[in-house]
Design a protein that fits this description.
It is built from 3 helices and no strands. It has helices spanning 11-27, 38-52, 59-98.
Amino acid sequence: MNKSSIRIGSNRSFGIVFFILFLVIALYPIIGDQEIRIWSLLTSLIFLILGLMNSKFLTPLNKLWYRFGILLGNIISPIVMGIVFFMIITPTSIILKIFSKDILNLKKNNSKSYWINVQNKDSKMKDQF
């Protein structure tokens, strides 16, 4: 997926998401028998009002949040893929080399052709899916 196919979300959805986020931050201290965070409650109400009105005031914040998401994706994706590679693919390869397995039949042999003759031809190509 390239960056041009990713579209920025609407101001309405952006406002509602941040309303929920700041509302959770405001009400979370209730679990520990503490007071509600008033600043967060007011911020959540502002985001709710601006989000429901689909206000243009949220456009710069929405664009900033969008760019932050793209930046975060560009940083986190290679890290996650590297972890997957070095934690799963590399140990599997090492284990296969220890046991001398050639699953993909990539070892070079001295035959004239790499063609594999099929022994069992019972397969029918009817109703594949």
